[in-house]
Write a structure and sequence with these properties.
By secondary structure, the chain is of the alpha+beta class. It is 29% helix and 30% strand. The chain is built from four helices and 15 strands. The strands form four sheets. Strands 5-4-3-2-1-15 form a six-stranded antiparallel sheet, covered by helices on one side. A hairpin with a 5-residue loop joins strand 11 and strand 12. The longest helix has 25 residues, at 2-26. The chain is globular, with a radius of gyration of 21 Å.
Amino acid sequence: MKRWLKRIIGFLLLLILVVVGTKYIFFNDPVPRGEYPEKADRLAQKMLDAINYEAYKNTRYITWSYQGGRHQYRWDKAMGKVRVTWDENSVLVNLNDPSRSLIEGSEKDVSETERKELIQKAVSYFNNDSFWLVAPFKVFDKGTQRGLVPEEDGSMSLLVTYTQGGDTPGDTYLWRLNENGLPVSYKMWVQILPLNGLEASWEGWHKTESGVLLPQAHKLGPLTLDLGKVRAW
């Protein structure tokens, strides 16, 4: 019995190694080289026009969720504040000066160390989770570099690298757009993921109350990342 158990365990370990190795081979693309920055800027602008960047700039509030609703957000863009809620925690983050953020509901019961940890976690959650919602609007952020990458079908994709800002400067994304400039998907070269060139779709684009277009979900292989009830006004 023990001999068979060892064989089964050994087979499962070998299967895991094969699966991981296969993923590493097929999802470990090198970062492509982007060219023609001026043309890339025009393609980036076409994307912004397609999702109504002007309406985004004039939008005050955006609400959405992440990880099946485990993270909840209400973002006041005009005031530079966002309420981040998860588990039993609620933090009103001051994006301009995180040290002035508020731990809601139990401020007096939280030590200074715990307060800083909660604020840092809320900021990190927001940086990551908001990117899945508004990344296309950030292609001209300070420190970004843009280039064009040719595809096999003759189209051009937009390569965007973030050289500073956020939690992981140096992350690179290759945007694939439809003929109208609307984002269809992007491939990622990011520090948080062990696989290079992993592709995620951008789906469910809909016009919100403020007029800006925002996505509803992303697919990464068999996984679907739903952003909950996305609103902007």
